[in-house]
Amino acid sequence: MSAVEPGTRLANRFRLEDRVTEFGGATLWKAIDEILARPVAVHTFSPEFPRVNEVVLAARAASRLTDPRLTQVFDAADQDGTAYVVSEWVSGESLLDLLTSRPIEPERGAALVAEAAEALAHAHAAGLTHLHLTPSRLVWTSGGTVKLLGVAVDAAILGLSSDDPVREDTEGLGRLLYAAVTGHWPGDMDCGLPPAPLDYGRLCTPRQVTAGVPGYLDAITCRVLLQEPRRGQPPLTTPAEVAEALSEVPRPTPAPISSAPPSLNLRSEAPDTMDPWPTPSPQPPVQGSQHGQRSQTGPASKVLLTIIVLLVMAAVGLGAWTVGKNLGNTPPVAHNSSSGPTSSAPSAKPVTVKPVSATGFDPLGDDKQENPEYADAAIDGKSSTDWHTDTYKSAELGRLKSGVGLILDMGKPIQVSNITLSLPEADGASVELRVGDAADLSSLKSVAKNENASGSVTLTPSKAATGQYVLVWFTRLPYFDGKYRGTIYDILVHSPASA
Length: 499
What we know:
By secondary structure, the chain is of the alpha+beta class. It contains 9 helices and 24 strands.
């Protein structure tokens, strides 16, 4: 048992309050820094704990690290028969919490690991390692930041060492990345996640385990964890190399965790409970708008309103009298079910046609797909969900290909009047509408283009276009979070009513 109890004060300022965990003579407490009036985490150690000196030295070394994504150490001492380490109290959800409470998108999980890799590369540059990377040590804080807990200190407390600490931490990042994108743990120890499946004794790749893992993340994970070359790239052997490989991953939005996707922060649209494609309202701007005008309520406007009302009443009366007179002078007409109207009906407006399916379309890429797991989000009628491309280093898709897109299967050939896209409010996207009877690029003919598309965009063919497949084809991508990415929140396909 611990030699200290709740209420104990260390260094005349840290008051121990709640015992969090206790194992092997080391106890973690939630405490209060009475001088700065803030919660802190305190490790204390029983007199029988064998590695007090190593822990204190490791904590003092860790206190010199400056990366804000690493737990800050405030104090470490062994005096008056009591050894302790004081560090910042981190509140939030660990990667383990996120993976066990609800599914997370592979790219969002990978973004957390990317932050950890950069922070760990900073620690390695200072000569410190971790050696105990598990999902519980990577935290998405309540303040919307990433924290990697326990650099140097965890290994000292647990008595861990390695002949090749750089390789050990690199493989640890690989295990975190595998867990983040699949929800399974590829390590020997029980960390609270289901074990990664094996295929004839060999670890299954992420895409074999979980549908929808982007190809580039599958390749990076194999390069780190399996130490195999993928996509013509060599294995990754240091945390810095892992950080560089993951630099393409969109980073989490710096805001508290929410069930709403980060893309909501990029636009201002109606919530899901409203029509995602509202008809423009004739109402005046809401009160407080900088561009709104005051409603006219003076005497002149009242007189004008009265005149308009009288004119409308006179017109209605005259119309009613004319109709009544004509009806009285018109002989009765026998009704016949086969007879048509005497005048032609107004032309019907195009109707919305629901696609049978949607998928990411990357015929020029390695795996011929582009985030197909998100494709249905572009046709679900919700503005809070989206399909997006991978991220690229330039607007021209990193000069890797001439285009990428989302293809819709309409189930049968239809005539396309137009399509309406909901895109981010970010300039720079170039999109084409292509229509054809086969899901290959050569069969899909370009019928409309927009060279600087953003927000709500309508693409209308210049002449009649008919086909079973409708492709939205990005040839240039807009800026997104330091990189470039195409995003579609919703697509509506319109066809003539007679089609």
